[in-house]
Amino acid sequence: MDDGHERKIDVDTMSTLLGTLLNDRYRLEARIGTGGMSTVYRALDQTLERQVAIKLMNREIASDSDQLERFRREARSVAQLSHPHIVGVIDAGEDAGRPYIVLEYVEGETLKERIRRNGQLPVGESVAYAIEIARALGAAHARHIVHRDVKPQNVLIDEEGSAKVTDFGIARSLDEDGLTIDGRVLGTTDYVSPEQALGHAVTGQSDLYSLGIVLYEMLTGDVPFKGENQVAVAMKHVREEIPDVQQLRPEASASLAAIVDRATAKDLLERYRSDEELIADLEDVLALETARSGQATGEATTVLRTLPSRTRRRLPLRMRRPAWVALVALIATAAAVVAVIALLGDNTHSGTGTVAPDRAAVQARLAGVSLHADAAHDFDPLGDKAEHHADTTSALDSDPSTYWTTETYQGGVMPKKGVGIYLDAKPSANAARLDVATPTPGFAADVYVAGPGNAPTGFPAGWTKVASVPSVAMKAKIPFDRAHQARYVLLWITKLPPGGDHVEITQLSLYQRR
Questions:
Q1: pLDDT, block means (10 residues), the chain with 514 residues
Q2: What pLDDT, on a 0 to 100 scale, did the predictor assign at position 67?
Q3: Residues 511, 429: Cα–Cα separation, whole Å
Q4: pLDDT at position 11, please?
Q5: Rounded to the nearest 5°, which phi and psi values hold at 95?
Q6: How many C-beta atoms surround the C-beta of residue 360 within 10 A?
Q7: CA distance 276 to 284
Q8: Cα–Cα dist 488/441, whole Å
Q9: Which of 90, 130, 355, 509 could be stapled to 435 by a disulfide with Cβ–Cβ 3.0 to 4.6 Å?
């Protein structure tokens, strides 16, 4: 300082910017990260007397108009986002011709540092962080913003143990033209999606692929692919399947391994289509893993409190909400169901298992079809004619701990074209949607219907296909091509889940058009 006044440091002649005051407000105190385009500093906001993070564009590329526009776009993109698991933008500006972005300062470590320090993370903690990251990406994708560089280095773990996604440095709105050259790979190749590696169009599904790789690394302690250079690694993402998670982490359940496999599927049709699908499966697995172990630690404890009530029912009673809260919720839910049933009148069949309409069903003018306890039947016309007949009632009992299962097929391949389970909606229903709950997601299935009379004994004669799903989610809502007046609705399983040798169905729910 000269004569008691603040003095700007000539950044071109100094080896460090520490001590620089940007726009008479932000004093750079420590360098906390560097990248090809910018350097991140911890700084003091002298106006509000609080610590912030400053991302300052590097001098040597500040004159590049494309890079400058990318940097400014990052500020605009992230400024739109307000989410507890996204590092927020506070301010932006320029000083001496160098743009900067002011971000909230997160005290803690990166997820990459945590993995390097601990190796494999606890299963519950890994799933919990994946949920928080997926929720953050979901908020970005809802604003048509793709991160494009999801990796543990870009996930900060704060002092409370919560995850926050940062560095939308190559994020791009789906609504604007890209500034990258065709074929150029943006993003770290350890986590890059196949389509991004090939220079193809990048969407939210690309971020979900990268998150799947991050989840793999949290569970196993390392990335799935190694190579002599970045291009070699990128091509492995294009051509090679990732190693089996369960071989490297035996305590990981088949359901969790199926999530990793589906998130990292090369084929976009087999990969998760949306953040909501992935989050729902992760939430279910977190509840199942916690119920199996009987305990939760670290961030898993926090995330468990945020699970939907339907998912929390999988937890042991001592880990759920206080009893009086659950009772109030149960009374409210019962009242709502009674009101809906009264409104629906004769549109719902009498029976033992009334289906409570969800929001999507109500919006689509669908009513749950109540089915008798013995309305589910196994269907194996191409095999020995029986497929665990005694367990079919478990697909209608609303108990997530019971299930109907196919046979176990050695090598994970069915030696026939399919096997199934069908519902008898006697006398008939204007069937429009089948909901499936399964702890073994990722299997392929078709849905067929048949009219009044006796159920067809052969296949496909007598059945009409109404839907096809290449990868069934843990909680799948399968809409039909249109409403069909039918008595029988068949879930026809044609392919086992990746790495699995059987399929389990915990619940089938049928909806009809009102």
A1: 39 59 92 80 92 86 72 75 88 85 91 95 96 95 90 93 83 42 54 92 94 97 92 93 93 93 94 94 91 81 86 69 46 50 43 52 76 91 88 86 86 87 94 94 94 90 94 92 94 91 93 88
A2: 73
A3: 8
A4: 39
A5: -140, 125
A6: 13
A7: 12
A8: 24
A9: 509
State the DSSP code for 191.
S
Q: Of all helices (H) and strands (E), which one includes residue 379? A: strand 376-379
pLDDT given at position 335? 55
Report d(CA 333, CA 178) in Å as an integer.
47
Q: For the domain covering 21-104, report its CATH number.
A: 3.30.200.20
pLDDT of residue 347: 41
Helix 123-142 to helix 275-293 angle (10° resolution) is 160
Rounded Cα–Cα distance for residues 283 and 374 (Å): 30
Helix axes 123-142, 204-220, angle to 10 degrees: 170
Residues whose CB falls within 8 Å of the CB of residue 207, separated by 6 or more in sequence, listed in order: 137, 140, 141, 146, 147, 148, 150
Write the CA distances from 272 to 30, 206, 275, 277, integer angstroms: 40, 10, 7, 7
Among 186, 161, 154, which residue's Cα sits nearest to residue 172?
186
Q: For residue 86, report the phi and psi dihedrals to the nearest 5 degrees.
A: -125, 130
Q: How many CB atoms lie within 10 A of CB 330?
A: 11
86 forms beta bridges with 165
Is domain 328-513 classified as CATH 1.10.10.200?
no
Residue 502 corresponds to which tokens in the numbers above? 């059987």
Structure token pair of residue 444? 């392929």
At 485, which helix (H) or strand (E)? strand 475-495
What amino acid is encoded at 181 in this protein? I
Give Cα 221 distance to the centre of its chain: 20
Amino acid identity, residue 446?
D
Active site residues: 149
CATH of domain 108-310: 1.10.510.10
Looking at residue 286, its pLDDT comes to: 93
**328-513 and 108-310 share a CATH fold:** no
Q: Is the pTM of this model over 0.70?
A: no
Tell me 471's DSSP state: S
Q: What angle do CA 248, 250, 256 make, to 5 degrees?
A: 95
- Identify the sign of the CA torsion 195, 201, 202, 205: negative
Q: Which two tokens stand for residue 355?
A: 């289906």
Return the axis-axis angle of helices 111-118 and 204-220, rounded to nearest 10°: 20
